[in-house]
Amino acid sequence: MRLRDLVYGLYARRVESHLDQKQVPKHIGVILDGNRRWAKAAGGTTEEGHRAGADKIAELLGWCEETGVKVVTLWLLSTDNLNRPAEELNLLLGIIEGAVTDLAATGRWRVHHVGQLDLLPGRMQGVLKEAEQATDGVDGLLVNVAVGYGGRQEIADAVRSLLLEHAGRGTSIEDLAEILDVEHIAEHLYTRGQPDPDLILRTSGEQRLSGFMLWQSAHSEYYFCEVFWPAFRKVDFLRAMRDYAARHRRYGN
């Protein structure tokens, strides 16, 4: 073991020992950013960057389990990403399919897809459905895999679902307008029934949400990490947990 790794390990254990378990976020949303830039900096290919990023996911989920996090939402593919050149997109889709299949195969986590399924190729749709079915009874960390996901699209889909539901009941637009409130829309989001994220974490130094969980993150805390996703370490995760625990959440006040 290199000296630097030993020092990081000791530091990580020190940070972890001082974490207040009562202040751990129950739901974390993670924007896994920086795969391509990490690969470029290392002299590697885009494929190597995406595969390294996929390999990091299980580590993150293990750290979340250790600290008491209950729900993790991973943004793996945005709706904007679907417009990438076919060669790159097909490569990325294949890597994501493998990552989702591997998560389900562990039997440790309950996998749930969030996103617009109809926008995705048939093979990807099948992989996501199979992962959900295979892990439906797992009593463990809930892992939302955001594939074909966009925050604006989610809100539009929620409103559409709400309108269709009430149309089926014979409710008029006028009657719906009289009773409509935020909870009606929340009940039709991809994450319905789940707690909103307490913490949104983004790697690679970018300080924006890019449309991630627009509705659910209204009262979330944000943490932006300079490290590219494939290089994200346990000590980086623990720093985010420590930073969150030190904040006084005011929920918009």
From TrEMBL:
One of its GO terms (molecular function) is transferase activity. Keywords: Magnesium, Metal-binding, Transferase. The active site is at 33, 81 (proton acceptor). Substrate binds at residues 34-38, 50, 78-80, 84, 202, 208-210. It comes from the Bacteria. It is an enzyme of class 2 (transferase). Its EC number is 2.5.1.-. Mg(2+) binds at residues 33, 221. Pfam families: Prenyltransf. Its cofactor is Mg(2+). Binds 2 magnesium ions per subunit. Homodimer. Belongs to the UPP synthase family. Z-FPP synthase subfamily. Catalyzes the condensation of isopentenyl diphosphate (IPP) with allylic pyrophosphates generating different type of terpenoids. This is Isoprenyl transferase.
